[in-house]
Every structure is written in C-alpha cells, then in structure tokens.
Amino acid sequence: MSPAPPLLQHSCLRTFTVSAPLSPRYLISEGRTTLPDPDSEDAPSLRSSPFYLETGYSIFAKRPSRPFPPPFVNLPSGSFSDPLTTHNVPRGRRPFVNGQPVRGITNGDDAIIIADKNFIAVNDGVGAWALKDRGHAALWSRLIAHFWALEVEKSFEGREDVDLADLNPIQNLQDAYNETKAVLKGGLLKPQQDENRHDQNKDESGPRSTETSSSTSDTKEKSDADDILGTTTASSALLHYRRTSSSPTPVVLATTLGDCKVLVIRPSSNTVLYHSKEQWHWFDCPRQLGTNSPDTPLGNAVTDTVDIQVDDVVLVLSDGVTDNLWEHEICQNVSGSVEKWQAGEQEAKDGPVYVARTLMNAAREIAQDPNAESPYMERAFDEGIAAEGGKLDDISVVIGVCRKKE
C-alpha cells in the first residue's frame, strides 16, 4: 500500500494557462446570450426593473451530448422525394417542445440558459443515465431550464412593477419540474399516441367496449415503459430590486437544488459576498430532480436573498468548476479578468465572455490534469476514496455583471 498523500496545501494561488490540449471545437462554446435573437421584438424583457445583468457564458463538454429523441427533434425522412437533411427544416435539428423551440443550450449533460437580462441558470444532468437505453439526462436538464425560464417570465407578465415578495423561484422550479415530467412521460411514443387519440376522437357515439378499455390499459403500461429517464440538479440567479426610501437597490434571488453553485463576487475588493450551499445525499450523489429521485423543488430547493451592488458579478456554475477550483481561486480569477476588462486590454475586449472563458479554461486545465490537486480529490480523501488529479466533467460558466439602466 502506498503511503498516504501529504495534506493538500492550497492557501497560495495557482497560475493557470491554456496549455492543456484543446478538444474538438464543438465541445467548447461561448457567447453573451442563449436567446436566438435577443434584439427581436418578440424577445421577453423584464423592463420594470432598473437593473439588468450584462451576461456571458463559456462552456466545455467532456463528451458530445446524446442526441435528443423524437418527438423533440425530427428524424431525417426516409423518402427519396424529401431532402436528405433536416438542417434547414424549421423543425429539423433544433429541439421543440409543445410547439415551441426549446430555450437554452446543451453542454454535454448540462444545460445553461440566459433568459432576458435578469435570469441565468445552470442545470447539471447526471451523466450515468447515458448507460440506459432511454436515459437522456441532457434532455431533462434542458427542459427544466426551458420551463423554469418561462415560469419566471410569467411572474412578470402584465405587471408594471413586481414586488420582491411576490417572486418565488422555487415554485417556478416546481412548476417547471411538473411540466418536464409531463412531456417526458411516455415520450418515445408520443407521436403514435397522438395519432391514436385522433382516431379515437372520430367516433364518440357510444361507450367504449371492454376491448377498447383493455387496449387503453395496455397502452398506458407500454407508455410507462417508454418514459424518458434522467435526473438533473438545478441552480439559478434572478436579479430584481428592493424598494428603499432613497432609491431601489439590486437584489439577487439565488436558488439551488443539488451541487451546482451560485456565487456573488465583488471584484473591486476581490471578495466573495455569497456562495450557495451544496446539497448531497452522500458523496458524489447530489440532490436531483427526475426519475426515481425523492427530491422535489418545494421539498428541497433553497432560495437565498442577496443584497448586491452595481458592478458585482453573479456566477452560476456547474460542479465541473467547483470540483476543480477552490472558491478563493474562482474569486481571484474573476476579479483579475474584470480588472483587465475595465483596463481595456485587448484580450479582454469581449468583456463578460472573456471573464467566463478565463474561468472555464482554468477549471478545464485542472480537470484534464491527472496530477493536479483539486477540491474533488480532497473530498474523496475525506471519504476514504482514492482519487488523483482533477475531475473531468462538463464545465458550465454563466456570469452576469449587475448594471443600472440609464
């Protein structure tokens, strides 16, 4: 038996580079928003708030996501008269649900979303479901993010001014979870089921026969056997404001279920103002929403109200970041990037995207280093589990810098 490793010394800061080999380009993506057309007149906007988030994201997937199944995407046609590709078909490769495009971006098994300029979220799908034939953790994480953003928007619809006390991200997440379960129930058979229901509606002249009832029961059992399986953690930050006697002040509602994290950093003083607490069943098994999980948003999710200032940075991170970087390293990395951005350095000209990219690359470098020290390695040692190096995982970084509207 080899001697026990020395205690990890991480009080000093590590120097990060981008020397680690880059993976194929499709595994790395970045941008300012996940909305397809943020300037569209149809794009929702929480315009009653005097504050907004200047956003950016950078993501890395350890492997390509399993393709979404029908009916969420269309399979290529087998007809010689149809095009060989569905790339340019309106409902081709882009996923749809309930007749609408699925919002957000898939990153391996993770999903990220930037909805308007007030709501950012990261959901971490549990990759072990890829071993199941009907396992689609990436679809679970993406749909919950999609519906969560829609439910948050409903809180603002038709209202000029929304009181902070009227916002309830946990209830929004619960509703999103319920909607996700409904659309994934029997998901692999839904086109056929819809056709069967259409045929049944043609004749409503009399009661159903015993044979029909038996067939319906068989269909239900078959539907249960074709549910789409998966689980995901969930985390988000919703920017709003608190009314005061002088002027409104910005507030973040940080909501988490599982081990993704929300951080608020003040770059001017290089300090962490807030960090969410991770939720676990046991080591490496976080609380999660989905198939066979006892966890629910109303029962387990937590929302913290965090008072912030203009220019504070709000981060929502998957465990691909926090398993590889300690919190003080994240803070130092973000503060240094913001300083370069504010100084107008050429490498930081894309602002929040640069901040997100720099943090993603730092986490990726440790994740791909088999000899690096990491928080995951330290936690594993505490549990009596042998582990070395970083933890290769999907890395999702979404940031928002609090700004005041002119």
Automatic annotation (TrEMBL):
EC number per UniProt: 3.1.3.16
Biased composition (Basic and acidic residues): 192-206
Domain PPM-type phosphatase: 84-400
Annotated keywords: Hydrolase, Magnesium, Manganese, Metal-binding, Protein phosphatase
Superkingdom of origin organism: Eukaryota
Cofactor(s) required, per the database record: Mn(2+); Mg(2+)
Any one GO molecular function term: protein serine/threonine phosphatase activity
Renumbered residue ranges of the record's region Disordered: 188-229
Annotated catalysed reactions: O-phospho-L-threonyl-[protein] + H2O = L-threonyl-[protein] + phosphate; O-phospho-L-seryl-[protein] + H2O = L-seryl-[protein] + phosphate
Similarity annotation: Belongs to the PP2C family.
Protein's name according to its UniProt entry: Protein phosphatase
